[in-house]
Give the backbone structure.
Amino acid sequence: MQFKRLKKSKIFCIDPQRVNFCEEYSSFCFDKTGTLTEDGLSVLCVIPASSSTFLAPSTQAHSIKPERFLQALATCHEITTINGEFIGDPLDIEMFKFTGWGFEECDELNPLASFVSAIVCSPQNQDEGDIEDDGNPKEIGIIR
């Protein structure tokens, strides 16, 4: 039955067994790398969803609502830096760059280094939602 509904919407699945799992998800991330046409990745936009409905695409990170979604994009990755260059999964790197947030690794002199691998902080010129009450950008530690 679900295959007929998907087909009417011009959605085709190459692994039909996965269709049954889809009802358990509220978010989807699509990775179209363009490997046949170009070298490298880029984030075009983020399309948030609410109440099972897609909202307008956000082409600028600071316009993404709710704010916790943007914070998830800035923190849910396994990137690191070596000599100022991001190292890690290319999709993670491009996703983080899209946020516009800063990235600072915790060195062994930092008292947080035993449990925080890095700190990300929102840009100073973001909407007020990304700025703390004292006017400083938000900082979030990435736990090891």
Remarks:
- The chain is about 20% helix and 15% strand.
- The first strand starts at residue 49 and ends at 50.
